[in-house]
Amino acid sequence: MTDVVKYLVSFEVNGESHRRDVDPRLLLVDMLRDDLRLTGTHVGCSTGNCGACTVVLDGKTVKSCCVLAADVEGSRILTIEGMSEGPDQLHPVQEAFVENHGLQCGYCTPGMVLSARQLLESNPSPSEEEIRRGIAGNLCRCTGYVFIVKSIQAAAEATTTDKRPSAEGAEPNP
Amino acid sequence: MITESYEFFAPTSVDEALSLLARHGDDAKVLAGGMTLVPIMTLGLTQPAAVVSLNHLSGLDQVQEETDSVAIGARATHHTLETHATVSSHFPLLSEAASSIGDPQIRHRGTLGGSLAHADPAADYPPVMLALGARFVLRSRSGERVVAAGDFFVDLLTTALRADELLTEIRIPKLEPGTGTAATKLHRVEGSFGIVTAAATISGCGRRGKLAVGGVAPIPVLIDLDSHLVEGPSEAAHATIASEVWERSADASPDLTASVEYKRSMARVMARRVIDHAVERAGAKGGQS
Hints:
The structure holds 2 protein chains of 2 kinds. Chain A is an alpha+beta fold.
């Protein structure tokens, strides 16, 4: 490939600042995995269907296979690796997935967990239907979703009874 | 992985974006949310020489209420339209259409302008825009023009946009009081693309209205319901509307999910559903909603 004009971008991933000269063809998911070695973000379909590559971009979940790396100038990105407060800790949503068998092969899990987190931030006590709509962008070919839904219900209960402030800093429900 | 190389631009002002479009013309693709463009580039279905991202512009993403209309910036996301109180109070069908697009991740990033400019015949917004009589603001370096939704969609994936023009704003006239609106679509599962989409507005105590149906022709079909609704939304009215929907969907194309017959049949069903819903919301059968 001759004369590829690189594009310089500065962005933040899991609180850490990065500056990269990227090929405009590079997808965000490939930059995260191959360049930053954050391989918790998975590649399923590469065309925006499966949700395995879900990350949080400026506060909202997106599919990182549909975002160009060159287009993240000034953005703050959260991947599954940055979700818990420390290396030996799990986020309440992750804990709930472990406790409730919310995964089998684990391929969809990082995306599923980030979508669940996003849902619970805006809706701390979702109904089953709201949970299913909240994870509609994440395909799971193992579980049939039943234990995933159960895990998210458990995470919702844990966080609303916990009285910990949510990630958005809002007061939890009494 | 995208294989063909291209030059990437991220203008920070509309003027800068327009200069880039003037310079690169047909060789450039405008990147809004990228929910269609990036996957089709990955699949090699489009190979632009230049990509002009709108993601670093300031503005063009606001919803603004004006005296007689609501102006929506072309960069407003589906998520914004789904959750914005001005949109849902004036045009509930637009919020409904937005909330049924794709999935949360797609709605967070995909935009109204991006979807309209792509002009997929089965997309969710075009029928809504036709039923609402929306007008689109197209800007280029040489000025601005305003095009009615009915003139914007020209053919399959083809719009009135010139290569040097950018769709910047969507203006939707406010509805007269007592108007009921609804949007619906036929699709296989949550998040999958529409097979047939439909939108309707009903006013004048059920005697006036518009119906637009997508997915059954290269561009959405707009049907003026006034002549059908002379005696209100009766069974007879539904029968004549169904005939017109059937006739005007003769250009439907078969695809992987549906045959032409099925699309035409379902277009009649979706038309009836969406009209009934709009009538109910207009309170035209006596009930309020």
